[in-house]
Design brief:
Length: about 475
């Protein structure tokens, strides 16, 4: 299993540092004592930790089962509460899918990007989408993007476009601003970000052979990101048949200035999710769960062919809807193992409202008859589980306050599900935070908080779901991104 997923020239990624390591085979004619390379030791430790998470989950569940905790409550009470405890099985498929991805595609392995060779007639077009209400932030993002691109590419190999609902003035080299007129309406009355993106399709100077890299207004990237994206584009340009694939990588949330440690650490699960189910689907060329609206790498001709004008039901989460439509058109997807950097919500309420928008918008995608059922079935199943996930959490607290006997099999399933859920946060934590930068004491303290506060993070996530269930969103809520 390990060898099938190893790239030809693997690079280790731990936190913010990348350590290149080649495996050199020992000639059979010169036998030497058995030893592991540094990469092999890291892989062995990685899989040992995943195995430990599974064993701890089994032991945790077994310990809290009826074997060690027996209740004297009547049989009918036990039956009712054990029926309710079946809710603990709801997150198990999600947990297993993510864990399988961690096993199949080791997080610590990363293919090194080759040096950039210019592609004739092809540019990387950075497209930043904004409402234009954070002009200072957008100007700063454009300036940082320009400096990064200039350090890696020639001027004729890149372009920056800022698509804004309001007038902006950005004086940067190779940068243009596309202002969406206030009276502009798409034929299908698409709103919000989808409307702006659709307008940009016909008002951009990007050519069909160019590649669009979609960013939010606060998204940052570095030279390694550019090299990895360029390598992906070069591979797609060599394709002899079929549509070029759509690429997406990992977004980290704790690399910039941290405004709220609670929400930032709560977003560790999003990093784990990128390495889990999102990577798993992209490695299979699919977008069963949709995709993120930021860090999208797509050929301009394909983007214009699909378009963003899919009506009001696509307006809340235009990114996921676009991905489902592309999948229905047999466009493939691919995982790009590199990083971009964003900020987490500044407040808990913004965190909850952000989840509420995703929850409501993804349900619209899952229920839309405009997308063939086979292309939204997985998303619909996931949304059904997400809709009742808060009941699973509630039942944990109920069992703590009013304990009853738990069958061994159910307790073990719940324990494994919980430990796999913890693993999601830990994968995100170790990918985000660097021990050398933070120092040993702060790193260990944050690691402990990451684990101890998981019930709080779960309650925050559940708050977004409950809010979305009782008050479905009809707008595109944008979290605060600029310090005022």
């Amino acid at each position: 299993m390990i060898s099938s997923s190893l790239p030809t020239s693997p690079t280790l990624h731990t936190g913010a540092s990348n350590i290149s390591q080649r495996i050199v085979s020992t000639p059979r004619a010169l036998p030497r004592p058995l030893h592991f390379s540094r990469l092999s030791w890291r892989l062995a430790r990685y899989y040992a930790l995943l195995l430990a998470a599974t064993l701890v989950g089994i032991g945790y569940g077994y310990y809290f089962s009826e074997v060690f905790f027996q209740s004297a409550k009547s049989d009918w009470v036990q039956t009712i509460f054990n029926s309710l405890k079946l809710l603990w099985l709801v997150p198990l498929p999600y947990a297993i899918i993510n864990f399988y991805s961690f096993v199949r595609y080791p997080v610590i392995l990363r293919a090194s990007s080759p040096s950039i060779t210019p592609l004739p007639g092809v540019r990387l077009v950075i497209r930043i989408v904004t409402r234009g209400k954070n002009p200072k932030l957008v100007a700063e993002s454009a300036a940082i993007a320009r400096h990064t691109l200039e350090s890696v590419l020639r001027d004729d190999q890149w372009l920056i476009e800022v698509v804004s609902d309001n007038q902006l003035t950005i004086d940067e080299h190779n940068t243009s601003v596309i202002v969406v007129p206030q009276d502009y309406a798409t034929p299908n009355r698409t709103r919000f970000k989808g409307r702006a993106l659709h307008y940009a399709l016909s008002h951009s100077t990007a050519r069909d052979r160019d590649w669009i890299i979609h960013l939010d207004e606060e998204t940052r990237f570095d030279a390694d990101t550019v090299r990895a994206i360029h390598a992906f584009v070069a591979t797609q340009n060599r394709r002899k048949s079929g549509h070029p694939a759509i690429g997406q990588g990992v977004i980290l949330y704790g690399k910039k200035q941290i405004m709220n440690w609670l929400t930032t650490m709560g977003d560790s699960i999003r990093v784990g999710d990128d390495y889990g189910r999102f990577r798993l689907q992209f490695e299979h060329g699919k977008a069963w769960f949709g995709m993120h609206g930021s860090f999208v790498v797509i050929n301009n001709a394909i983007e214009k062919q699909i378009g963003f004008d899919h009506g009001s039901e696509s307006s809340i989460t235009e990114d996921a809807f676009f991905a489902l439509v592309a999948q229905a058109m047999d466009v493939k997807f691919q995982f790009i193992h590199t990083f971009m950097y964003e900020q987490s919500p500044f407040s808990i309420m913004d965190f909850i409202k952000q989840r509420r928008r995703w929850f409501g918008g993804l349900w619209l995608c899952a229920l839309s008859p405009a997308v063939p059922l086979k292309n939204r079935l997985v998303l619909g199943t996931f949304m059904s589980m997400w809709s009742v996930s808060w009941l699973c959490l509630a039942m944990v607290y109920v069992n703590f306050l009013f304990p009853t006997d738990t069958p061994v099999w159910l307790a073990i399933c719940g324990g494994v599900s919980f430990l796999y859920y913890v693993t999601l946060y830990l994968i995100g934590f170790f990918a985000t935070y660097d021990r050398q930068q933070l120092g040993n004491l702060k790193f260990v303290a944050l690691l402990m908080l990451q684990i101890v506060l998981i019930p709080v993070f779960s309650a925050m996530e559940s708050g977004g779901v409950i809010y979305g269930l009782f008050s479905p969103p009809n707008d595109f809520y944008v979290v605060q991104k600029e310090v005022r």
